[in-house]
Amino acid sequence: MKLVLAVIQGKDVEAALSKLTQQKFSATVITSTGGFLRESNTTMLIGVEEERLPALLELLAQTCRTRSRYINPMPTLMEPSEFFLPQPVEVQVGGANVFVVNIERFERI
To answer: What is the pTM assigned to this prediction?
Structure first.
């Protein structure tokens, strides 16, 4: 048995949960915030049998996509005579960070 910890961007959560339910995966959902842009994320805890792990990872890959976004960088500390003109910077957001952990013991109580 494996425990999958999937940190998913807020925009991808509904699609991922819908597909998980359709494929009979169950997940515990924890709302979180963080990352580079301090946007909403969801952390899913998913217990899965080892033989179903590839299907779960494929499902997450299909529903959690990265996308480009432009942000204005914050100015660094400057000398009083310096002038900062921000230029938008393209960053990749979205997708999922997935951790797979071995489970020694599982009990449903």
So the answer is: 0.74
64: CATH? 3.30.70.120
Q: What is the pLDDT of residues 21-58, one digit of tens each?
A: 999 999 999 988 766 666 678 899 999 999 999 999 99
HSE-CB at 79 with a 13 A cutoff on CA atoms is: 2
Helix, strand, or coil here: 50? Answer: helix
8 A C-beta contact, residue 59 and residue 12: no
DSSP 82: -
Q: Where are the alpha helices (DSSP H) in 10-65?
A: 13-22, 53-63
Residue numbers of the domain that contains 97: 2-102
Residue in 41, 27, 56, 19 with CA at minimum distance from that of residue 96: 41
